[in-house]
Amino acid sequence: AQSVTQPDIHITVSEGASLELRCNYSYGATPYLFWYVQSPGQGLQLLLKYFSGDTLVQGIKGFEAEFKRSQSSFNLRKPSVHWSDAAEYFCAVGGGYGGSQGNLIFGKGTKLSVKP
Amino acid sequence: SQTIHQWPATLVQPVGSPLSLECTVEGTSNPNLYWYRQAAGRGLQLLFYSVGIGQISSEVPQNLSASRPQDRQFILSSKKLLLSDSGFYLCAWRGGLGYYEQYFGPGTRLTVT
């Protein structure tokens, strides 16, 4: 079955500390992978995406993610967290274009809190 | 550039009343359109998607329906709301061939009382 697992429901880090949010996926075909961020009461904003090529992808707001096929993982990282990064983060996987193949499967999200 | 609008932003409706949420996309043509519901602690649930005018696919049986009367307009409706319909409703769009990411609107907070 196709699924996305974000093992951490809630993470708290200190401002300036590094961050890694975990994402594992199960997908029968070549996956297209995404990270989204959602501030309270807002829609989701695309942080970064991976389709193919270099397994380390850079996104907006200083985030990066690394695709590891052998581990079925796509973890999100940031070297130094800012207070404004406090939000909920969603990992998603999709498989292509055309009908339901274009639909994304989302993880349940990881809520990030930042301590001053 | 492309933008996506949703309205209303918030809505409080009594049980048994009808519902109409609207989503429009600007700056693109023939997008794939999506309706999601987000309940607290339950992530995103895909409700409907549409690949073209009049073409609606439902992901889960429920009290809601969707329509796409125009290329860039997507409407979520209900004839009689249930308490369980409360939640945060998000509309999203995706571009044409070769584009796989979805872009989300600002959402509508629906409270059924």
Record the SSE blueprint.
The complex is a heterodimer of chains A (116) and B (113).
Chain A: E1 3-5, E2 10-14, E3 19-21, E4 24-26, E5 32-38, E6 44-50, E7 56-58, E8 64-68, E9 73-78, E10 87-94, E11 105-106, E12 110-115
Parallel strand pairs in A: 2-12
Antiparallel strand pairs in A: 1-4, 3-9, 5-6, 5-10, 7-8, 8-9, 10-11, 10-12
Chain B: E1 3-7, E2 10-13, E3 19-26, E4 32-38, E5 44-52, E6 55-58, E7 65-70, E8 73-78, E9 87-94, E10 103-104, E11 108-112
Parallel strand pairs in B: 2-11
Antiparallel strand pairs in B: 1-3, 3-8, 4-5, 4-9, 5-6, 7-8, 9-10, 9-11
Explained architecture:
The complex is a heterodimer of chains A (116) and B (113). Chain A is mainly β. Chain A contains no helices and twelve strands. Chain A has strands spanning 3-5, 10-14, 19-21, 24-26, 32-38, 44-50, 56-58, 64-68, 73-78, 87-94, 105-106, 110-115. The N and C termini of chain A lie far apart (41 Å). Chain B is mostly beta strands and 113 residues long. Chain B is built from no helices and eleven strands. In chain B, strand 7 (65-70) and strand 8 (73-78) form a beta hairpin. Chain A binds chain B through residues 32, 34, 36, 41-46, 49, 51, 90, 94, 96-97, 99-100, 102-104, 106-109, and chain B through 32, 34, 41-44, 46, 49, 51, 57, 59, 88, 90, 92, 94, 97-107, 109.
**Helix proportion of residues of chain B, in percent?**
under 10%
Task: Indicate the overall shape of chain B.
Answer: globular
Strand residue content of chain B: over 45%
Averaged pLDDT of chain B, please? Answer: 92
Low-confidence stretches of chain B: none
Biggest beta-sheet profile of chain B:
7 strands, mixed
In short, what is this structure?
With 116 residues, chain A is mainly β. Chain A has no helices and twelve strands. In chain A, strands 2, 5, 6, 10, 11 and 12 form a six-stranded mixed beta sheet that branches. In chain A, strands 3-9-8-7 form a four-stranded antiparallel beta sheet, with no helix packed on it. In chain A, strands 1-4 form a two-stranded antiparallel sheet.
